[in-house]
Amino acid sequence: MARIVFDPIxxxxxxxxxxxxxxxxxxxxxxxxxxxxxxxxxxxxxxxQTQVLQSIVYDGVVLExxxxxxxxxxxxxxxxxxxxxxxxxxHHAQLLSYLRLGGYRVGLLLNFRAPRMKDGIVRxxx
Length: 126
Prior knowledge:
Layout: H1 8-24, H2 30-43, E1 48-58, E2 61-73, E3 77-82, H3 89-102, E4 106-111, E5 121-125
Parallel strand pairs: 3-4
Antiparallel strand pairs: 1-2, 2-3, 4-5
Helix pairs in contact: 1-2
C-alpha cells in the first residue's frame, strides 16, 4: 500500500487532529474540536486563526464577510471541521469553494465524529 505524503503543515494538523480525537473522543460539537485543535497546533508552533471571515468579489464588487473559514493555519492551509455521521459531497464542495474563493492551495476536511480519526480526514488541493 502506498503511503500518502502530506506537506509539513498538513502533516502537523493531521497529527494534532488524531491527538485531539484520541483524548476527547467523537461525541462533541465542532466548536470544542476547533478550540482543542487550535491549542494543539499553537503548541507546536503553528499560527492559527479561527472563524476567519472571508470576502468574495461578485460582479466586480468586494462583498465583505460572505463566509467563514473554521481555521486558517500559517495563512495557507484551510481546515474545515465537521462532526457528521459521514462526509458528503457537499462538504467536499464547500471546502473546495473556500479554497478557490480565498486563493488557497490546500485544505483539510476533518470529521471528528468518525470512529477512527484517520477515516475522517480528507485533503483537497485547489
